[in-house]
Amino acid sequence: MNMESVWKAAFDREIEEQGVPHRWTFTLDDTFETKRGWLQYMQCTFGRFCCSCCSRWWNSAQVHIAFMITSDRTLRHGKVKIKIFRQKCKRCSLAILENPEISHENIQRVIHNLVNKIQRTFYLKNSGNPDLQPIVYSDYFEGPHEQAHCEACKLQVCPWQTNEKKPQKPVNCEVPRVPRLPVYLHRQTNIPRATYGSSFLDESQTNQEEPEFVKIIIVILIVLILCVILPNDFKK
Ligand SMILES: [Zn+2]
Ligand SMILES: [Zn+2]
């Protein structure tokens, strides 16, 4: 099974387990083009790399993974593209960018968080399953993060570009990159989820006129009492 099929199988399984409606497709995309209308969602996990020059292995708790997500509600079809960022050996001058090795357990955790994100963003549904942290299999890491050896830094999507001084620890890092569309405004503001996107409005939001109508009826009744009943009382 190649890398793409492992990820795809984990994705299909999670989509089914969480009961996500509509059809969802999952593909590997090394080009990493940002497109309008696609949601970018980033995560970090633990993985290890092997240099093809010196055969040395190194661990990283900052293996960056970007997902580009879009959904067409009319066609009932969602699409996910995944880009896994590579790293270079720090010791070899002729080193090339290497793909990480990520355990099946960590792949499942990343996919679990991804499907949670899809549920929250496209179906306004909180699955109740908390996001999962990666398993860190080793305490031994190489020195500080170096931009020259990180593909995500080169493409300017590495969270470490703004967090250089913090110690390395495995976290799920979500970097908002496409806040232009109103649908994704909740990523930057505290607008309640149910109101952030007009495309996601549902029936529960259409009955807000009712309290006004009741108020008007009450006012009419009071006016009637004042005009009809009270003057009669005074006559007595
Ligand atoms: Zn090397
Ligand atoms: Zn970086």
3D architecture notes:
With 236 residues, the protein is α+β, with helices and mostly antiparallel strands. It folds into two domains: 3-205, no CATH class; 208-236. The protein has helices at 3-17, 104-123, 151-154, 210-235; strands spanning 23-28, 39-50, 57-72, 77-84. Strands 1-4-3-2 form a four-stranded mixed β-sheet, covered by helices on one side. Helix 1 (3-17) packs across helix 2. The longest helix is centred in the last third of the chain and has 26 residues, at 210-235. It is elongated. The model is unreliable at 165-210 (pLDDT under 50). One zinc ion binds at residues 145, 147, 150, 152-153, 158, 160.
What keywords describe this structure?
alpha+beta; 236 residues; 28% helix; binds zinc ion; 2 domains
Summarize the structure.
This protein has helices at 3-17, 104-123, 151-154, 210-235, and strands at residues 23-28, 39-50, 57-72, 77-84.
Report the order of strands and helices.
HEEEEHHH
Instruction: Give start-end ranges of low-pLDDT stretches.
Output: 165-210
Estimated helix fraction: 25-40%
- Look at the helices and sheets and give the structural class: alpha+beta
Give the helix/strand layout.
Elements: H1 3-17, E1 23-28, E2 39-50, E3 57-72, E4 77-84, H2 104-123, H3 151-154, H4 210-235
Parallel strand pairs: 1-4
Antiparallel strand pairs: 2-3, 3-4
The chain binds zinc ion (2 copies).
Residues 145, 147, 150, 152-153, 158, 160 line the site of one zinc ion.
